[in-house]
């Protein structure tokens, strides 16, 4: 087996995705199939190949000039005194 | 002839010369939408009132003798993953069902200042992840040529709205073929520009290193009109290429050399293959030289594509935790891990699947096995393509290896679904431009001819597309 | 049994010298603003936004890289560090990472500190700060929700990671003082701003498991946190309990390290290069540009103070140890050039007032001389008075003690004091008269040996309890010696 149910469960925890047992079952089978397909990448001799990288010069970077963003940015209605409310941390 | 059948250039001229008003044109278009939209389902959001208002303002401007822009009055649909200030941008996801952007994408700013009218936001696969527009919270977009079939994806709403005469042209986004696939399935023109030609600022990221925003139209001419407005470097996107703003034109040029990619025709359905050989014949009759060529690394293209796309997607979609924006779910009282997991379980199936696959390939110890290898494949492919472009102006082949299939037919088999992207992902992996133009019909269903060119060789690619379009004379719009 | 302690540091400095944030145009001056009033679509992580790397921050990080003796790679890239946390708008942090021949802006450096000690620098990297979490009820444990302020999100940080080259918390303190002085001299970070410098530390003893200490809010607390943690680990070792490899939080109120309450599943950051930021080419041209634009570093300044002004190594070190002090010194020289005299006044006398104030307030949040009504012009004036022998040192010290409170110019004050003494000329004459009566033998000697006059002066000063102006008193003595 390439991918186990436990692995998928752990990936779900890392990615913060809640999955039911049925979903876990289904995803494990599908992801197993997908990863098996992706495994062909390991069969290619690529030692000499350098990945392409986009490059920019230092002079092309953004100049350090502050600007205010005037419009409202945050959409949530769960606010308090300008803060955004989030779930509890413990 | 109804005004909604006109090309973009005709709309602009007609309004400017006061042959008809922008309001008349938009009203007729809205009537058309009302009639066909129930069958097609191309839109997520319609912008009727504001569209009409903008038309009326334009008419006033024209009456006052003011200058109007190069797209003045042209009604466009915009894929619903491109941010429009003050107008919902949902990505066809529950996660953004009520999300209203605080800013306009660069392409939207440019279109608006060229005078275009946004008539609505077009349907797509959730976060642009799919090849059929079936993975949408708003239901599938149907193919205007056969509404029991898929429109292709992920810019299905864009292509279908253009094919069904619900707008004059559209913007889609193309990560692995998402503009060209539905363009092919709906028999319209769809272009993916060279990576870095068009700003991605405001395009909701699916796979950053692969995707570009691209125009969809019923003619090559319309696609050129849109591209001329949106192309060019943007200080808000570091990945745009710093150069003067390019301008493309329609030129009647002949004597091109085209390489017909064997791997693409061999892997296609016989009906599709046949149409592509016919297309090559058409080009030869126009004085082009077509030869079969091979692109051996294509066999690794999909594995490379799905590794990079899912990896980048898994990280891009992390921000949707429903804290800053999203749907209505009070965080109070929840422990944070469980709030995040609960909120994020509202992603659709395909998005979740790709998040997990992407997390897998990036997991500790796997980076070198998948992500890095996938990038090396990109180099390999690019090198092969560059070698071919020394001998050929363009590479041609089918856009899609298959004909539009029935809605629901492949939805339960993700890998089988992924495999249909084989001909399109090459352009995204190499960053090179590609266009799909209608090639004709097989079994009454559209087939698209894909033309790929070297980086920033859009003009050559458009010249051949135009040459082919003029020669092939494919039927433009379906009965609906 | 002797124990070996190994301490490594992770230091975060906010680049407050930059005007805008790391990847967006929001102001870097977020402090004191209303919650979420200093944000934009980019730093709030809205869909469709792209990071726009701030040129200045690369320049600043490069300066730090040079100052810490690190090597530059040919080009730099940013990585995504993927993990979920409510203060992280994108649920990944843009940072740097060393893998697959891509490195952060600085690697493999070394920094000397204290007297001939040194620590190896593993890397210098640029990264973004997260937002700020506030607990509604004041505590994480009892709040039913958390309050989030994204004003800080996207602030540019430079993270400096050392090898575990420290054994003594005192050395760590010295090292941090040196870092502070460097980043102040470079003008990249105002270390006086609350939370602008933070330090995490890792500690292991006798080759045992490594414990990370996080959440130390000021450099001042690092030494305390380390002492606590070392004692804790030694106590465990003496009871033969194995130290667990863990992350502990410094409890600022109770001054202890405590274990993190949430036991998470193993984190996996799934690093990969940020596709929206192209690699940035550095190259030799860039490096020479940085070299040229580098402000003077504290070590160079110290050498200059010694060679140009003839200061002792000790005095020069004290001055450059705090940029404000060194700047004060040089500003004073601009007004009156008497380097040794001025350095002495600043280091020994003026600092004595500062020390008391700092002991009282126990914080370094404001300027050293804040609250003291003294500027370079005062010290310059004071030094001039002493040099010209208008007043003696003892009087000058008295004057300094007053002017730090009043802000009066020393020469003005000296004139007043002088005037009051002239009024008392008859008192001084009386004192001289009585010394002449008591010390007749000495008076006799003094008429032949001028040096003995100083002995008489000492006696006069004694009976006037030091209030006499020695110059006038000596004149009086000499005059009287000639008369009689
Ligand atoms: Mg850090
Ligand atoms: Zn911002």
Report on the architecture of this protein.
The complex is a heterotrimer of chains A (90), B (480) and C (484). In chain A, 31% of the residues lie in helices and 11% in strands. With 90 residues, chain A is an alpha+beta fold. Chain A has a domain at 1-44: Histone, subunit A. Chain B has a domain at 3-254 and 453-472: Amidase signature (AS) enzymes, CATH 3.90.1300. Chain B has 16 helices and 13 strands. Chain B has helices at 8-16, 22-40, 48-63, 106-113, 156-163, 180-186, 220-230, 262-266, 270-285, 298-316, 336-344, 349-362, 371-389, 414-419, 425-430, 458-472, and strands at 43-46, 75-79, 117-122, 142-143, 146-150, 169-174, 189-192, 212-217, 257-261, 289-293, 394-398, 434-442, 445-453. Chain B has an eleven-stranded mixed β-sheet, sandwiched between helices. Chain C folds into three domains: 5-289, no CATH class; 296-416, no CATH class; 425-483, Arc Repressor Mutant, subunit A (Orthogonal Bundle), CATH 1.10.10. Chain C has helices spanning 55-67, 169-186, 219-238, 283-293, 298-309, 313-320, 323-335, 339-361, 376-387, 393-406, 410-423, 425-438, 440-448, 452-463, 470-483, and strands spanning 5-14, 75-76, 79-82, 92-95, 106-113, 117-128, 132-135, 145-149, 156-162, 197-205, 211-214, 246-251, 256-259, 272-273, 279-281. An eight-stranded mixed β-sheet of chain C has the order 5-6-9-1-10-11-12-13. Chain C has a three-stranded antiparallel β-sheet with strand order 4-3-14, with no helix packed on it. In chain C, a hairpin with a 5-residue loop joins β10 (197-205) and β11. The termini of chain C are far apart. β1 of chain A pairs parallel with β15 of chain C. Residues 12, 127, 159 of chain C line the site of magnesium ion.
Shape of chain C: elongated
CATH architecture of the domain at 3-254 and 453-472 in chain B: Alpha-Beta Complex
Largest beta sheet of chain C, briefly? 8 strands, mixed
Largest interface, by Cβ-Cβ below 8 angstroms: which chains and how many residues each?
A-B, 50 and 66 residues
Uncertain segments of chain B are: none
